[in-house]
Prior knowledge:
- The protein is built from 24 helices and 20 strands.
- The protein is of the alpha/beta class.
- The chain has 4 domains: about 110-315, Rossmann fold (3-Layer(aba) Sandwich), CATH 3.40.50; about 330-485, 3-Layer(aba) Sandwich (Rossmann fold), CATH 3.40.50; about 490-540, no CATH class; about 610-685, Alpha-Beta Plaits.
- The strands form 4 sheets. Strands 3-4-2-5-6-1-7 form a 7-stranded parallel β-sheet, sandwiched between helices. It has a 7-stranded parallel β-sheet with strand order 10-11-9-12-13-8-14, sandwiched between helices. A 4-stranded antiparallel β-sheet has the order 16-17-15-20, with helices on one face.
- A hairpin with a 2-residue loop joins β18 and β19 (about 680).
- The longest helix has about 35 residues, at about 30-65.
- It is globular.
- The protein starts with about 25 loop residues before the first helix and ends in a 7-residue tail after the last strand.
Amino acid sequence: xxxxxxxxxxxxxxxxxxxxxxxxxxxxxxxxxxxxxxxxxxxxxxxxxxxxxxxxxxxxxxxxxxxxxxxxxxxxxxxxxxxxxxxxxxxxxxxxxxxxxxxxxxxxxxxxxxxxxxxxxxxxxxxxxxxxxxxxxxxxxxxxxxxxxxxxxxxxxxxxxxxxxxxxxxxxxxxxxxxxxxxxxxxxxxxxxxxxxxxxxxxxxxxxxxxxxxxxxxxxxxxxxxxxxxxxxxxxxxxxxxxxxxxxxxxxxxxxxxxxxxxxxxxxxxxxxxxxxxxxxxxxxxxxxxxxxxxxxxxxxxxxxxxxxxxxxxxxxxxxxxxxxxxxxxxxxxxxxxxxxxxxxxxxxxxxxxxxxxxxxxxxxxxxxxxxxxxxxxxxxxxxxxxxxxxxxxxxxxxxxxxxxxxxxxxxxxxxxxxxxxxxxxxxxxxxxxxxxxxxxxxxxxxxxxxxxxxxxxxxxxxxxxxxxxxxxxxxxxxxxxxxxxxxxxxxxxxxxxxxxxxxxxxxxxxxxxxxxxxxxxxxxxxxxxxxxxxxxxxxxxxxxxxxxxxxxxxxxxxxxxxxxxxxxxxxxxxxxxxxxxxxxxxxxxxxxxxxxxxxxxxxxxxxxxxxxxxxxxxxxxxxxxxxxxxxxxxxxxxxxxxxxxxxxxxxxxxxxxxxxxxxxxxxxxxxxxxxxxxxxxxxxxxxxxxx
Length: 692
């Protein structure tokens, strides 16, 4: 069962008396009833042995008293004969009976993992029969009460791997006692979209016993969350920033939390939530069970696990376990073009590749909207998906994609998280991901179960370093492709037209149209009629005005060795030139933003980088604010990711943060409604350069 099949992600629970991983699904009461039944054959066996021993003793006594009881000799002989018959070992009919009786079949699927009947019924209702590898390996040790460190990518089923044992332990805890009002499980996720998905998944798995799940995240009125928490909760699914907010308000009570889950922990650290995670884990009372799931296992994750997990069970599911010979196969190609040519280059590549279905990843909502509009204008069936859309809009978009009435899904990483499209053949990176792990997240959606998949990246020349870093981390080569020329495009379209007509002829799908040919044959040559029909089919593939096609120039890439002179890659005015964690104001070794560029210049003293706006926050060093606090607050309350936030400067009394211009108003509005370091802040656009 994949977590991609549901819209939400799950949380975990620890009960004081956790069932054994091999325990029966029947429950505690049934086990108690079965004990006497199990004991009865043993009692009967003991009684039979005692009777046999007594019979032997009686035989000895009879032999000794034969001389004294001559009158009863015949009777004694009869008794002895009977006794001898009794002493002869009788066939053990019970064993035969047991062998003759049909044995109950061994538990299979989810039933073999120790889940109770209500959970199994809910899973059956959802159509889930067989657990995925990570579910099979993770659920038993979690049920046994162990901490767990799981490395698994999106699409492996990890949500259910922790949600199901949490619900099992919740059911065990609530058996025979009144349900408490405070949470027993806390699940932490990096984004609000994932928090919603996890919550919905847990609710669907726990539908048979009414699990009370409350998601808390930024961007939603906090009053609604306060009311939900007051009415009683079993499982809280939260983003770290909003969890801290509720903990400080005492609306999220951790006294009864016995299990904590960190889902996509690497994402949370990348988004600047390290301090929040440490604070939350320290606030949860001992003893408690801790589960950590991460797609990657960098040193920071290993350190977090060492500090907060106790003798954990280690599980690694690379991406997807497939049969030998059916390993995922993804061809990876990067095309280097000028920024102004990116949309046209993508269209040209799509024309040649002709994907059955493709996801095109963009960094921002604005980019999603603009690219969707541009591709639809070129005749593609494209749908956009991002965090600014309502759930109804999202459902409508995904319905079209799954019904194949849309060929392209243009989406942000956050909005596309957890989505699973069966007929997906292509993944396109319209922007090079800032981190190799993000790249792996994206392309892992194709090439499954032996199918071939294609990963395409549209890059600017200055982003070559990112591609090299991806190759180094993934140990896979990314081929540099050439944008198809106009001549190649026309040749490809002719090939597609021939393929389409050949398929029509082979399948005899033209019979209903023969009358059209007959009606025209008296007036035109049959060959001319066929040529005209071919032209119409050819135009349907987008070649209506081939004379308007323009060449898209490939960019000649420099050698990897940089020359000593004036090298445009040396300083790099664009923030995307730097690797993950190396953008302005961020020190990758220390893991925090210092507010200085590498040349020592303060961000507040110079113009804002193109496409970004600088906002002013009324909290500074005097309030204990650090860069991670600002990044966590912004990412927790908005749709932005940590790698989208630009330079940060923290002064004694205020802070300056650069954010994408298209998100500036959202950041100002939502950051003003939350707290940073426990205090309300004023947020507005910066009025200009300033000094301390």
